[in-house]
Design goal:
Layout: E1 3-5, E2 12-14, E3 16-19, H1 29-41, E4 46-48, H2 73-80, E5 89-94, H3 107-121, E6 126-131, H4 140-152, E7 156-162, H5 166-178, E8 187-191, H6 203-210, E9 213-217, H7 248-263, H8 268-277, E10 285-288, H9 292-299, H10 308-316
Amino acid sequence: MKYSVLGPTGVRVSRICVGTATFGVAPGPQESDGVVGAALDLGINFFDTADVYGSTSTFDRPGAPPAAERESAEEILGRSLAGRRDEVVLATKSGERRFDPDAGLSRRYIIQQVEQSLRRLRTDRIDLYYAHFPDPNTPLEQTLAVYDDLIRQGKLRYVALSNHTAWQMTEALWIADDRRLVSAPVAAQVMYSLLDRSAEKELTAACVRFGLSIIPYAPLHGGLLADLSILDRPIAGGKRYGGPGYSDTEIAVARRLDQLARDWGLGMQQVSLAWLLSRPAVASVIVGAETADELRANAAAADVELTKEQLDVVSALTAGTTS
């Protein structure tokens, strides 16, 4: 496994980060232990979760227990890491407002959620804590101030922003500097893949300029950039979260990428992830895996180095799609 330094922290994180959004559904609670164990065996030391993962109705699917009967992804991950917590960099989030009208990035809510996450994860500190989404009702100054307090208390190590714009990231850095806070964001988590390059419009430049890391989620675009057999599944892509399936344009790009990967003797997911890991400021990519074998296949991408010519060919598949 290869590693990168997370922003300005000096902390080394594996180039592959295990995402846990569907822990408790696919993989189920027992299978999750196998996925976490396989990750540790592969040298993966970076795990990503959130206070709402696993146990909300968004992740419901046929054959899985209803949300009210499921453990949260944090609880499952905390149990799976028992005895090995100190070997990993643990990231979680709060501030997703779709499921709770009181949620957001206020002082009251953040303190409440940090305490609950610490309990569910069976730990005394969180290595990287994200503001999951912007909160239009709470000034960013208040959010960064409570993060500053929690870092000084030893409950958080570093903080970051998720699903925020480049100007919001820049504003957060300015506030932290102006108020001499220790809670300046060190990374940006954002949806980013060959089929969604909107981060390249402004966020990439901001992160490069300020020395921050980009941590992409959905790097395989819901599985389409990993294996075309995903098209045969009744639940694929955005359908997993109640949205639409794939567009004809997305499928056409995936088919071309699949042929390139075959020509190069690689798996499509390896090419997809290797391309993304080559992009400026990208430190690690978050991959979800339903099985240990699926994780191993994705993790192999960390060892793949495409030539400049190959990278250019892949980039050309979706050139001009950053807006």
